[in-house]
Amino acid sequence: MSSPSKRREMDLMKLMMSDYKVEMLNDGIQEFYVHFNGPTESLYHGGVWRIRVELPEAYPYKSPSIGFVNKIYHPNVDEMSGSICLDVINQTWSPMFELVNVFEVFLPQLLLYPNPSDPLNGEAAALMMRDRAAYDQRVKEYCERYAKPEDIGAASEEKTSDEEMSEDEYDSSEEAVMGQADP
Prior knowledge:
Structural class: alpha+beta
């Protein structure tokens, strides 16, 4: 690739041509949402999450910022911000990885193999280690409550960047950016 800009475009195009629904934010290609289905073999099967992706200027040399918009119960995902704790994204990212790897490999692996010894959600990690059946039930409850396929378009962020917004403030700003949803 001749530049990070061309690489961003290529990776985004590959992601858009795959089976993932991609919603662009603003006018650029640096921020967007991807609809992500829970892996078939996991407790998260049947759930759909809206993942916010931000590509830094130095992408692919610097990793993308990835976060769940709608809530998910998982030891390695912060329940409030949606931030994820995943070494391959946070520490060992390589320009050899592409965006599609995040959704085809990294996130499915995160959901299939939670790591309660390195938690962002301490309560989920403790429950997982203490009472696996109760943890499994809580995951299923969250999937039913927050990750229904028909609700994914209505998912709204509770926080953007480091600012807190009320749901009404966010809804009005989202409509201004994205326009009205099709019926």
